[in-house]
């Protein structure tokens, strides 16, 4: 791959980012809705596919340089900023009165196995749950649409649906696999041991947990913390896609193979995908290891930290860079 091709790929990625931000700005200022113009959407998708395949050919295209804040990009809308420092853990839903029997430890997410990603065509935005054609959904609308979900068999064993938590205006979104025992009890993602590590990772990146948004591929706990099955992923994935459409973050961090392979519809092992920028519907996505995997494979933390540093760089959060 020569320098010229690398530069073209980077320029294309930057232009795509600009177009997305511009359309979003138009939508927010009452102009043409982002989702209304199907032709624009189709063109964008085609450009993204071209960019993705060019990127896939590159050894390591780094978007930090390729997607700087541009003059044409509108100012970001104000983000919610809690006035007091957040508590060590975010507020949680009260656990139900009945306590559940102790579940077996969650099997570590494997770094090498493939997810059987359902091969469905990309959905038109309007067919996503909670999405009205031409309108950007809100997280509340999507949660209402999810309701007391019985779309797959995970509903039978759950205590709580774990929809997601955090800043609805977050620029940075973390997507995990599915709730474990603690998350199921509290209705909040990543509150167990893996959650503690994730919180540390977020803080080490220079964010507070309240600044970001955290959700999972499946919203109900797989029994015994087994891996989610393809039908379960297929039933829940549209809600994840709707959430990401509502959030429209600057960056998505996909934690582990289930998040990365599902969002990208790419069965490449996480060991190979991690650390390389990808595009998800016009949003930059960084695949990295799942915190539960890191708890059991501490030697891999260094690689995960390298991945997160790439994200920090994009936010201007590396030491010595502009904040
Ligand atoms: N692991 C996940 O993938 N998600 C959670 O919410 C908790 C653990």
Q: How much strand content do the residues show?
A: 5-15%
Number of domains: 2
Low-confidence stretches: 21-110
Query: Per the principal axes of the C-alpha atoms, what is the gross shape?
Result: globular
- What's the arrangement of strands in the largest beta sheet? 1-3-2-4-6-5
Count of alpha and pi helical runs:
11
Helix content: 25-40%
In total, the number of strands is 6
Main beta sheet: strand number and arrangement?
Answer: 6 strands, mixed
Average of the residue pLDDT scores: 74
**Oligomeric form:** single chain
Structural class: alpha/beta
State the CATH class of the largest domain. Answer: Alpha Beta
Rounded Rg: 19 Å
Using the 3D structure, state the CATH architecture of the largest domain. 3-Layer(aba) Sandwich
CATH superfamily caption of the largest domain: Uracil-DNA glycosylase-like domain
**Topology as a string of helices (H) and strands (E):** HHHHEEHHEHEHHEEHH
The distinct bound ligands, ions and cofactors come out as: uracil
Distance between the termini: 32 Å
Question: What would the CATH topology of the largest domain be?
Answer: Uracil-DNA Glycosylase, subunit E
Short description:
The chain is α/β, with parallel strands linked by helices.
Please describe the topology of this protein.
Elements: H1 3-28, H2 38-57, H3 63-66, H4 139-146, E1 165-166, E2 172-176, H5 181-186, H6 193-204, E3 213-216, H7 230-247, E4 251-255, H8 257-264, H9 270-273, E5 278-280, E6 283-288, H10 291-296, H11 301-314
Parallel strand pairs: 2-3, 2-4, 4-6
Antiparallel strand pairs: 1-3, 5-6
Helix pairs in contact: 1-2, 4-7
The structure holds uracil.
Residues 176-180, 183, 189-190, 192, 194-195, 216, 292 line the site of uracil.
């Amino acid at each position: 791959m020569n320098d010229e091709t690398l530069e073209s790929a980077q320029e294309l990625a930057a232009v795509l980012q600009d177009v997305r931000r511009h359309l979003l700005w138009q939508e927010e200022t009452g102009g043409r809705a982002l989702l209304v113009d199907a032709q624009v959407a189709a063109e964008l998708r085609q450009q993204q596919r071209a960019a993705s395949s060019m990127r896939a050919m590159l050894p390591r295209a780094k978007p930090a340089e390729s997607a700087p804040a541009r003059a044409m990009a509108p100012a970001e809308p104000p983000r919610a900023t809690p006035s007091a420092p957040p508590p060590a853990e975010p507020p949680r839903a009260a656990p139900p009165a009945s306590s559940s029997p102790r579940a077996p430890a969650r099997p570590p997410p494997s770094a090498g196995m493939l997810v059987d990603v359902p091969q469905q065509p990309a959905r038109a935005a309007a067919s996503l749950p909670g999405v009205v054609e031409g309108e950007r959904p809100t997280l509340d609308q999507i949660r209402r649409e999810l309701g007391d979900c019985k779309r797959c068999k995970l509903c039978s064993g759950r205590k709580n649906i774990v929809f997601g938590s955090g800043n609805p205006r977050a620029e940075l979104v973390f997507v995990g696999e599915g709730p474990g025992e603690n998350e199921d009890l509290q209705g909040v993602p990543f509150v167990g041991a893996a959650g503690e590590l994730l919180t540390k990772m977020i803080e080490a990146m220079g964010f507070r947990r309240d600044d970001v948004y955290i959700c999972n591929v499946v919203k109900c706990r797989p029994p015994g913390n087994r891996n989610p099955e393809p039908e379960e992923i297929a039933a829940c994935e549209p809600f994840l896609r709707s959430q990401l459409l509502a959030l429209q973050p600057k960056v998505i961090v996909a934690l582990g193979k289930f998040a990365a392979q599902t969002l990208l519809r790419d069965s490449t092992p996480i060991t190979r995908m991690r650390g390389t920028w990808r595009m998800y519907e016009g949003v930059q996505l960084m695949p990295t290891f799942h915190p539960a995997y890191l708890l059991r494979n501490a030697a891999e933390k260094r690689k995960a930290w390298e991945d997160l540093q790439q994200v920090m760089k994009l936010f201007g959060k590396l030491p010595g860079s502009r904040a």
